[in-house]
Amino acid sequence: MSFIGRKLVQGLLTASIAAAMMSGAVYAAEEQEETEMAVSDAEASEEEAETHPPLDAPMAASVPAAEEETVPVDDIKPIDEAISTAREETASETQTESASGATLVVAAPNEYLNVHSDASLSSDVVGKLYTNDVAAVIQDNGDDWVKIQSGGVVGYVLGEYLVTGEEAEVLTDLIKQDVATVDSESEDETDVYSRKDEDSRVMTTISKGEQYTVEETDEDGWTTVVTDEGTGYVRSESVTVGASYPVAQSSDEIKEIRENSTVVDIADEAQKRADNAQAIADAAYEKAEEAMNGIEDMELEEGTSSAAARAAQTLGAVSEIAQKNADASKEHADFAKENMQNHRAEMGQAVADFAVQFVGNPYVWGGSSLTHGTDCSGFTMAVYANFGIGLPHYDASQRGYGIGISSLSDARPGDLVCYYGHVGIYIGDGQIVHAANARDGIKISNADYREIACIRRLFY
Question: Were both Cys, which of 203, 318, 368, 406 would link to 378 (CB 3.0–4.6 Å)?
Fold first, then answer.
């Protein structure tokens, strides 16, 4: 459904909640009036009983009557207001708790949230929380800063970028993944089978401490897990299944990732985060829509309408929070993709710039020396080798590398321009550099000087 469609449904959800809670409040008010009249009669009878108590009346302690919680209509808030006031609304409500009893919160920054060593923006940054990362609260005094732990990162973050309370409870449930970990005292690893049969093919093994996403745990003693080799099955008694959440990265981890990852790796990871965030938003939206449908179909009964409406309001707020997180993750992924494409274009230009410096050097059939002599495929092979890309020493085989580019007008510097029995490197402005022949050596020519077989891009 489109974003506009979702906003319409969320608006309908808010209206349905308000109507349901108003009806619940009126119903409760009528019940309260009847109760007050009954109490008045009871008090009169009680006075009479105290004045003339029967001789056999027992001495009973006064037990207050249970009061039904009513929800004033003024307390109803639209979804967007519920987001901004979530922390005040749920300050005395039940918080999300981890197995250790710690309150869980969810990061909701535009891109990332710095974790500081102290409650000050001038203090060192010890890590980062990305969108939908989960943290446990260590200390929250109600001011701007909250002390948290997320994975191995401990520090202070600005509380305004955290989802808390009932919204966090719902959101963490959507974010968490069940994972299987080998935790057997008798084994350091366990086999993953292709079928629920120990005689079936062993796909891989899970070593002690490794985690694999769980799809299902059956009553017949098998747990379905997702591995790099595909979906497989492990004996349930050999693994422990628990909840796993995305957590912060320390500054050292971020530095290591930057040093050892390419722009492609970074863009791929950003896209995975964006896809996961959108999946969470979709799941939240479905829950909110179900709640809205439930409100519309529900018979208003004493003590049920207000509770259902509150739950629906929370789900509506979570749906919008999750979609905002997804939008922020997508924006970050788009930026990473653009950065990757720019980097690739720069790499292609670097290839072209590197190649043209050998213009005038000799052509040698079967050679691959950029200075002492090379043929056409040896030239492209040697140039690209300087940029970490291996190509075969055969022009026809080089056509199978990279991705195809539809036309010369779409070519960019660094692309391979393949001919029938020849190959060169595009340098821009409709020209190539290539090892032409024994007479001309390495030279620059118009790219369309002969029929082009295909154009291949190696940085994509």
Answer: 368
* Domain C-terminal end among 295, 322, 346: 346
Q: Are residues 356 and 433 in contact, defined by beta-carbon separation less than 8 angstroms?
A: yes
Annotated catalytic residue 454: no
Overall number of domains in the chain: 3
Q: What is the largest CA-CA distance in the chain?
A: 132
| Confidence tier at 238 by pLDDT (50, 70, 90) | confident
* Percent of the chain scoring above 70 in pLDDT: 75
| Structure tokens, 123 | 């203090």
372 is catalytic: no
Q: What is the pLDDT of residues 171-221, one digit of tens each?
A: 999 999 888 888 656 567 889 999 999 999 999 988 887 888 898 888 888
Whether residue 65 is predicted with pLDDT greater than 50 in this model: the reply is no
| Closest of 33, 35, 31 to residue 43, by C-alpha | 35
Q: Which of 116, 332, 418, 422 is catalytic?
A: 422
Instruction: Give me the CATH number covering residue 453.
Output: 3.90.1720.10
User: Structural domain of residue 18, as residue ranges?
Assistant: 1-40+70-76+264-346
CB atoms within 10 A of CB 275: 14
Please give, one letter per residue, the 3-state secondary structure of 230-282.
EEEEEEHHHEEEEEECCCCEEHHHHHHHHHHCCHHHHHHHHHHHHHHHHHHHH
Cα dist. 67→70, 87, 89, 170, 304 in Å?
A: 9, 27, 22, 28, 14
201 located within any domain? yes
The residue with tokens 């490794």 is 210
Catalytic residue among 376, 393, 418, 454: 376
3-state secondary structure (DSSP) of residue 407: coil
**Domain boundary, last residue among 244, 273, 288:** 244
> Tens of pLDDT along 240-259?
888 899 999 999 999 999 88
366 and 336: one domain? no
pTM of the model: 0.62
Q: Is 434 a catalytic residue?
A: yes
Given the residues 116, 332, 418, 434, select the one marked as catalytic: 434
In the three-class reduction of DSSP (H, G, I as helix; E, B as strand; rest coil), residue 432 is classed as: strand
